[in-house]
Here is the input.
Amino acid sequence: MKRRKIFKLIGAAPLVGGIAVGLAPIQSVFGAPTPVLAPKRDLIKELNLRTFINAAGTYTTMTASLMQEEVMEAINASSKEFIMLNEVQDKVGVQIAKMVHAESAMVTSGAFSALTLGMAGILTGMDRDKVKRLPHRLEEAGIKSEVIIQKAHFDGYEHALSNTGITLVPVETTDDINRVVNERTASMHFLNCNTHEGKIKHEEWIKMARKYNLPATIDIAADVPPVSNLWRFNDMGFSFVALSGGKAIRGPQSAGILMGNKSVIDAAKLNNSPNGSTIGRGMKVNKEEMLGMYAALDNYINQDHEKEWKMWEDRVEVISKAISKIEGIKVSVTVPPIANHSPKINISWDKNIIKLTRMQLGEKMRFGNPSIEIISWGNDENSIDLTVFMLKPGQEKIVARRLYEELSNATFG
Ligand SMILES: *Cc1c(COP(=O)(O)O)cnc(C)c1O
Here is the structure.
């Protein structure tokens, strides 16, 4: 509707109870929705928010990843209707479980809360009195209170388990496990991204858990791709698997997935929002995110992974080729074996030729036009890293040009 026409309509608005009214009566008289008068608000502009090209990766502080159109459609469509929250959770869970070879699944508030809720589920089972007791004085309530974890598997995220009130018991060898298992032991937890750092690998971890009839659990938060990791650990027999939804899967950033045995997931739900008097009440996930998470996972599983990998390699090629021309530069490409498994470019330079520290280059990229984030932290003063999997198509050319400009400008002479 054109502006002029709207004003005309307002001018013709009837007097209701002797008071001239504006747009509301138009709606009742003509049965049409209130026309949009103002142009769409742009909050990014209004609040002067810095947007940037993400050549760093799925870092939580950088908002990790961008949701695809199908995810936003799921979110927008469901935002217009009321649906019972548990019905969404249950029905989305059934579909996700099928996709990942699990008995059951649920959408959580990130992988972190998946870990907390899964742990809570193991501790309480379907006992509502126990649910109310977490996270305090577990032993007094007859709840098991110890979780075995390899020393090399501490990375900070095990705090999600401690939040239930359990104590972590560090081990290094299977002999250690034999020694520390006791009647208070609740489970054995594994951090997938530190597989190579620990002495005990998946199969042996599960074997030891079976020996003592304990649930084995695993954190694979950032470990997709490869897509097969979505089901690999369910197939292996872990009791629960915690996955981040907002990293490479590109679901809502604050969503995650807990998948595994039905008994554990059912109990995890009991410990979760919308139920009150639970440790999970503050981990609320709305229906939009549950459906958005499902749409993202569906998209992710069904996309052409080989084609995507090829696209990443092409981007790497564009950047490497441009930078390699500069004297004193060395470019190498590696792929982290687990977690953020995608090509990573390392650019290092001879400090006698290029007068720039990694921090300086990071700032030049950040405050340049357009703003670009790269991995400019770390120990080596004369090197930075970048990834290409969070770039939008074509942005690799901008990244290549900007890096070339800054690095060649810093060349002596
Ligand atoms: C990112 C990450 C988490 C937390 O995931 P969220 O989805 O942000 O809650 C947990 N564990 C590991 C290993 C991670 O990399």
